[in-house]
Amino acid sequence: MSWFSRLTGSKKPDIPSDLWKKCPNCGEVLINKDLPRNLFLCSKCDHHLRMPIWDRIALLTDDNSFVEFDSDMESQDPLNFIDSAAYPDRIKKAVESTDSFEAVTVGEARLEGREIMLGVMNFDFMGGSMGSVVGEKLTRLMERAIERRMPTVIVSASGGARMQEGIYSLMQMAKTSQAVALLNEAGLPYVSLLTDPTTGGVSASFAMLGDVHIAEPEALIGFAGPRVIEQTIRQKLPEGFQRSDFLLSHGHIDMVIHRRQLKPTLSKLFSLLL
Amino acid sequence: MSQEFEFEKPIIELEKRLSDLRSLSEEGNIDLSREISAIAEKIEAMKSDIFHSLEPWQVAQVARHLDRPSTLDYVKLLCGDSFVELKGDRLFADDPAMICGFGRFGSIATAIIGHQKGHDTEENIYRNFGMPHPEGYRKSRRVMHLAEKFRKPIIVFIDTPGAFPGIGAEERGQSEAIARSIMEMSRMRVPILCFIIGEGGSGGALAVGIGDRVYMLEHAIYSVISAEGCAAILWKDGAKARDAAAALKFRSTDLLEAGIIDAILPEPLGGAHRNAEFVANAIGDIIQKELPSLMALPADLLLKKRYEKFRAMGKFKLEQDSEHA
Lengths: 274, 325
Fold this sequence. Notes:
The complex is a heterodimer. Chain A folds into two domains: 18-49, no CATH class; 51-273, 2-enoyl-CoA Hydratase, Chain A, domain 1. Chain A is 34% helix and 18% strand. Chain A has helices at 3-8, 53-60, 87-98, 132-148, 166-186, 200-203, 226-233, 244-249, 262-273, and strands spanning 20-22, 29-31, 67-69, 74-75, 104-111, 114-121, 152-158, 190-198, 212-215, 255-256. In chain A, a hairpin with a 2-residue loop joins β5 and β6. In chain A, α4 (132-148) packs parallel to α5. The relative contact order of chain A is 0.11. By secondary structure, chain B is α/β, with parallel strands linked by helices. In chain B, strands 1, 2, 3, 4, 5, 6, 7 and 8 form an eight-stranded mixed beta sheet that branches. In chain B, a hairpin with a 2-residue loop joins β2 and β3 (108-115). In chain B, α1 runs antiparallel to α2 and α6 packs parallel to α8 (174-185). Chain B has two domains: 6-53; 61-311, 2-enoyl-CoA Hydratase, Chain A, domain 1, CATH 3.90.226.10. At the A-B interface, β4, α4, α5, α6 and α7 of A face α7, α8, α9, α10 and α11 of B.
């Protein structure tokens, strides 16, 4: 222990700070390189940390079975939007820091041998916000699912619509929701997997339109963000408000499933539905 | 007038002078007709100048004017006594922030759906300022299904700051209520005309905005987020709402250019609240003109065109070709 941690009583390990993080739930120090092997679960309290998309894809699909679609689709800046930074600069920064072009990655894969269409949102890319590219990729994914008669799984993680694309981002709610209607008419299953956090225009469109809704434990899921609600009604929100168990008890989701059980649960479901 | 805008002050001052002159002329039996008509002309010129060069932020204020005609005002003007209101979602409650029913526009009977704001504080509290809870969207969805069942077109008036963000709204599934409304509206086998008459506030507006035609009043707005909300999040300063309003491009002219709406309905100088009949007539004309041809389309074709309309919205680029609109 260093003199500093002895003084403050904290349990910071004697390693550079970019190599570890604290569990947001229990404060346990987690070594970054151990996280993938532990599926980004806290080794002490089992808290479900946010999972990077490629780890998520590996978790849900059979080895090397994922084939990505539309990986080269990029955002435009239809509004020439500038707040404290210009939108194209924000995109560029997000591309560099996340190593993906947009806030969703879509493709086909096998899940315990079964072919599925899979979309995974990336909260690290501008808060997982849905602009034209996210809407278009997910809509194409669902249209492909219909062409190929395959089930669809979409893993949501998003703060909502991408404000920098203005009305175009709002219209992605319409575009994706009507695509779900076509999935329904084609009689193909669509499982919405809700992860922390799923709010705003994403929860108020395709994410809440699954045939089956599965949430990871303790995920924040809702229409309005907690801060907006607190400011509107001027009162503190109850403990556990808008968390997975709250949604389960209010009838909005079918189940809360531990990360380790997601793949077998999906496989079991599809074997019953298809 | 119950609400005055800073940018209207010169007009209001002149209007006061005009009415003073008129009463002076009447009381004193003095001929002031030349002065009166000069001021009246000046007022019209000033209105024209001011209202033809409104900033986006000012347009948002006009769109939210307390006296701005509401859904029920237009329904009264256009349907008269033929309107029958239907209440309740059959699940939880009635939502006074959403009006539903059936009425007659000329010879055509239609379902009518619209957000409802109040014209004063008391009415606004009752109407929750036009911000529906999930039961509002479940009521309108129920009435859309009635329209489909009885093969009646659907007329929608959009005027909401947004769906209500509150504890009850979350408990009862605001997200699901909006999402399902959008999804099912996209498959209603009857024609749908939407009119954005005031504020088109985000998902709460879009929830009833999936029309075969979408029209917008000149000074209405339609936006993914309010200027205040956007300023608070992106500028981290609610006072930057004016900058956010400009950046969001939510005016009718912006949306027409973006291909999101089909046409703009002009408002009288000074805004819709200065002559609700004028606007109501324009809405009535559109309904009479557009509905018969849409009603003549086979339902499958109607749905296909509606799907394609919203399918095409968005801007992105692919590496192999330059760009997609």
